[in-house]
Design goal:
single chain, alpha/beta, Uracil-DNA Glycosylase, subunit E, two-stranded antiparallel ribbon, 8 helices, 8 strands
């Protein structure tokens, strides 16, 4: 069972995430990933990857885990791999990002009214964390959500991320039974953020047409319209210059 961290600041949480070694399988894998030929000579991050974006924002985008040659290489979630390119292009088209590019920690990317993170902070073998690894990392997701004081909507990318967020709600006293993943569906709750579901932007889905750019953009624009109809204030946060600076408030 994950332990509560006791209300950490954003910077302290970022340091705790980056220093975590609670999952031996993930530590071994992330530190032993063999660089692809295209990235040979580059420095791989090889640590847990904190969330990135605007913790004052109204939208939380929740992925599963960093990619071995994406976030595990660059030190920023959804950065430097095909899933990141697909997601950030859609976020840009919907008005949540200032550019359609997510290639490196120093590319200048800024998210508007949006924070992006993963349920598990380390790259897992086969892109699939174990149940125990989800549980070990759940304390970090709980703290990220706690820090998002203006949170109004959560977009879960894939069934595993959807399940991780439902478990987060259960830890907060919400029953959660009867919620099932379905792309494009919106779940509304009293006094809780709305939950939206999307197929994950993995190459397996995007290369086969399961998820198209248009599908994701339409869903993000619908989320933005729903958010704007509430009249809640928007905010902007610039990216940190170093990945180990942790989440930005």
């Amino acid at each position: 069972m994950a332990r509560l961290l006791g209300g950490l600041s954003a910077a302290s949480l970022g340091r705790r995430i980056v220093g975590c070694r609670n999952c031996p399988r993930l530590v071994k894998y992330r530190e032993s990933v063999c660089p692809r030929a295209a990235f040979r000579g580059q420095h791989y991050w090889r640590k847990p990857v904190p969330g990135f974006g605007d913790l004052n924002g109204r939208l939380l985008v929740l992925g599963i885990a960093p990619a071995a040659h994406g976030g595990n290489r660059t030190g920023r979630v959804f950065t430097g791999d095909s899933s990141g390119r697909f997601l950030v292009r859609a976020l840009y088209s919907a008005g949540f990002a200032d550019r359609p590019v997510s290639e490196s920690i120093d590319d200048g990317l800024t998210y508007y009214d949006c924070y992006v993170t993963a349920a598990v902070k380390c790259a897992p073998p086969g892109d699939r964390p174990s149940r125990t690894e989800f549980e070990n990392c759940s304390v970090f997701l709980d703290e990220e959500v706690r820090l998002m004081r203006n949170l109004r909507a959560v977009l879960a990318l894939g069934a595993l991320s959807f399940g991780a967020y439902v478990k987060h709600m259960r830890r907060g006293g919400f029953d959660g039974r009867g919620l099932s993943f379905e792309h494009g569906r919106r779940f509304q709750f009293e006094a809780r953020p709305s939950l939206y579901a999307s197929y994950h932007p993995s190459p397996r889905n995007t290369n086969t047409g399961v998820l198209s750019q248009g599908m994701l953009v339409r869903l993000l624009k619908r989320i933005k319209s729903d958010l704007d109809s509430t009249g809640a204030p928007q905010s902007i946060t610039k990216q940190p210059s170093e990945p180990n600076a942790g989440p930005v408030a």
